[in-house]
Design brief:
By secondary structure, the chain is of the alpha+beta class. The protein is 29% helix and 37% strand.
């Protein structure tokens, strides 16, 4: 419950200072990125809890889990973890957990939506394949985020995970939206400029994310700032036209400052 209280605190205290009247910072786009990033952080928290529980499962069940495992938020607003393998035409579900309304993890005993799991698995494979065309050979570990949209389409984000030695990475981000069968690509948003950059987590350190080839902060930049907001002292995003600084003080909590780049 600590996570949810802290998220509520952030939402209440997240303010936008500026921009000055003559500078048209894209606040609507930025606010949309903040909303999506907050959802991704909620997803990440659920994925960590569910996956930690899975590590205690029997070895034969773990061996039936492949790269197509995923977490999703059901229509009942509860988080679920599906751990298994996709065999082209069927999903072999080994373990199925959920975080119930009492905020504890329980085994799901109701029949799974196998059609949905096959669709998501197809999307996961296609997402990694598309991102791999840009990334080439990369040793940066990526996290996947799955959202089942209201129109039955499937959104998949790929963002850098926390790397070994507690190194937080940025510089590559991928979003793909597929149809309800996970076959047709409906939308794609990609950012990668040939390499990743990163910082070892340090509460006393100020960090600067360099995005000087884009006009405004990307979703990945906003996610990095919110995800690691309490692991660095200040996080600044520098783009072609602006500086966006996420800072904290005891009076205002976390808030953003946006300034035009001179």
């Amino acid at each position: 419950m600590i996570f949810w209280k802290y998220l509520a605190f952030l939402l209440v205290h997240l303010h936008f200072s500026g921009p000055e009247k003559h500078y048209k910072f894209p606040i609507a786009e930025f606010s949309a990125h903040v909303k999506t990033a907050e959802w991704l952080i909620e997803y990440d928290s659920a994925a960590w809890r569910l996956s930690d529980t899975v590590t205690h499962a029997d070895m034969d069940l773990l061996q039936r889990t492949g790269k197509e495992w995923f977490v999703y938020k059901g229509r009942d607003s509860m988080w679920y973890g599906a751990y298994g393998k996709f065999q082209d035409t069927a999903y072999d579900l080994a373990i199925h957990y959920c975080i119930n309304r009492q905020d504890s993890i329980e085994l799901v005993t109701t029949p799974p939506d196998t059609a949905m799991m096959c669709s998501v698995s197809r999307g996961i494979r296609k997402a990694y394949r598309n991102a791999g065309v840009m990334l080439g050979r990369s040793y940066v570990r990526m996290n996947k985020f799955i959202r089942l949209n209201g129109d039955r389409s499937i959104s998949i984000w790929l963002l850098p995970a926390l790397q070994p030695a507690e190194v937080a990475m940025y510089g590559g981000e991928f979003h793909y939206r597929f149809d309800e069968k996970g076959e047709q690509l409906l939308e794609r948003q990609e950012y990668y400029r040939g390499g990743f950059k990163g910082f070892r987590l340090n509460n006393g350190r100020d960090v600067k994310l360099e995005y000087e080839d884009v006009k405004s902060p990307t979703l990945g930049a906003v996610y990095f700032a919110l995800r690691y907001r309490n692991r660095f002292r200040e996080i600044r995003i520098e783009t072609l036209e602006s500086h966006s600084l996420l800072v904290f003080n005891q009076v205002r909590g976390y808030y953003w400052e946006h300034k035009e780049r001179k």
